[in-house]
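Appendix B.2, paired examples.
Example (i):
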Amino acid sequence: MSIVEYAYFLFTHKKTMKLDGKSIQAAIMALVDDYKFDPYQVLEIVKAGIKSGFKKDFPQYKKSDIIVNIENDGTVTIYRELEVSKEVEEPEQQITLADAKKIRKDVTMGEKLLINVTPDTLELSRIAAQSAAQTIKQSLKAIERERFYEKFQNKQGELLKARVIRVHADSIILDIEGTAVVLQPDGQIPNRMYEPGEEIFVLLKQISKGQGGIVLEITQSTTEYIEAILRKIVPELEEGIITIEKIVRIPGKRTKIIVASNEEKVDPVGVMVGSRGDRINTVLSLLDGEKIDFVEDSEDPVQLIKNCLKPAQINNVEIIDTKAIVTMDESQKALAIGK
């Protein structure tokens, strides 16, 4: 049962809601135990809910300052707060000193006087209970939003493990650490078949607060996603031995990655591929068949172009302004640019 469902059940599962000590105490402890909320925070939320419901049932107090007190045993007491004033301009919020002294003899001018207005039988009507539940629901959702934001705000730029819940025509619903998140079409790998129940990785590009709540922008289609995967698999990248100079990608089809070594005796391409191809195979398994080529960087643009087109044998490279004219035998064409 979600927090929202619980809030409604708590206050609306009967025609009326009797606010006896045991039920209130049980409700507060359930929210604390089940949802790990701060007890004092929950107490204030329940007070606000009762206040909202009370004003529905007793409209004469609609404009009054109402204070709800809940004892440790759950006993509820409701007070009306009035300011002791020389003249009463707002009867709902003020009382004269003479009238105040009839209630408490030692009261002084300017003091806030609390008058017990708790009904003999404190029972919320159906409409009042719904009002209380709505107030509690909104407060709990606000706490959840803050929790959600705090949970992910330091994970921007990281890979997150996700499970596919549902597949719609254009969007994929994922479960990420117990939270439903939408993988939008532009974040998906084109033509990839997502299956309910399968586990995938996504990159958290950004987390932001909007009017509709907290938004997680996740993706599998960017070059940053590729780089995040590689940094998980290749420790030499984090150590600074190998650097990624450039990534060019057609999602779902092919990716070329230019890598360089900061140590003369270290082969950057060999490091990325791994012993017996174990690292590249791990990457390929996460990309559902997308082809990956690692290219060794070179300060010589001609050599860099030849490296990019390996394993094809290149006859000649002529660079004119920002264009390169590459000449090769017809038999090498498929190796250079694919079928």
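Example (ii):
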Amino acid sequence: MKYVDEFRSPQFLQAQLDKIAEFPFNARFMEVCGTHTMAISKAGLRPLLAPKVELVSGPGCPVCVTSAADIGLALALAEIPDAILATFGDMMRVPGPAGTLSQAAARGAAVKIVYSPLDALEIAVSNPNKQVAFLGVGFETTAPAVAAVVLMAEERGIDNFHLLSLHKLVPPALKALVEMEEFNIDGFILPGHVSAVLGSNAYTFLPEDYGIPCVIAGFEAVDILQAICELMVMRRDGAGLSVEYSRVVRAEGNPKALDIMHRVFEPADADWRGLGVIPGSGLRLREEFTARDAASLVAKIIQPADDRGCRCGEILCGKIRPAECPLFAGSCTPDNPFGPCMVSTEGTCASYYLYDYTDNNGVVNNGVEPQHQQVDNGVEPQHQQGCD
């Protein structure tokens, strides 16, 4: 592919929409990636596919699935005297038991926004008399980079660098989803970024054990529609696992990234917003790195408060759409988020509010991203494969 434009071609998009419309049945698919949710909304695909295909959003936003209890732990860290909490910016406004990290910073807590875990390590170097805790949030995509920084801290002897690992693993969450009562989807659009690290082999249990079709998709409109075409074929002919995003994703994933991740972390039970505690779905520091566990710095954890009507958990499980939450677009907006799904740029509520929401005047936000001449890696788009 030389340019992104091939993956946004109106001719290719219309051809795929026509093929999807030819199937003599309707289907309900779930995208399990916040970037996919935003891409679908920005391209205006939901109304174009309806009623033939219904797309629902799953727990694909790492900020959104972080539990209230874990936000309370981060807030407790921020309040420790002579400590610095380093975090990515999208965690600053997530509501917790005692407000947000942004509000904690306004009260005088030392909360620093960083762009990478390496920035947090440098803060520790520059402040040797303070304990620096990095808030590690994300799926398999971000965990290897965080693990690499932990190893770097070990090598350089930077003893005041700590990590609060709130990392989550995608496959156990998918297993928990499909085993939920009344869970009703016909296939998964699987995440591209996570799968670039994890590899496609990690998902074989879904078609083999549960009979659920799965396609790993890229992030352009043609990628997503091609994935839907393949899912429709599988729904007709039998479940399988396909990699539409083959220009990036391999069956074995990224062995080097996985090796670094497994050297530092081991699986642990984790609390997911909406899904509860899922066995083996999180990552904790291995025993040899427990001295760097930031949770050990906290004497008292701020306990979660009542959610006050936020239905983000149900949205993350695909049980309801954002507009079915009584707070959506009223007391909960991107400028004044009431729940985490409205905070992150990958949040389901935020994407629906910006692109799929009909306001009181009947105006529908359904924006299409402008086309750009961006260079990629020389692989031609896969639109010619078809879906029959």
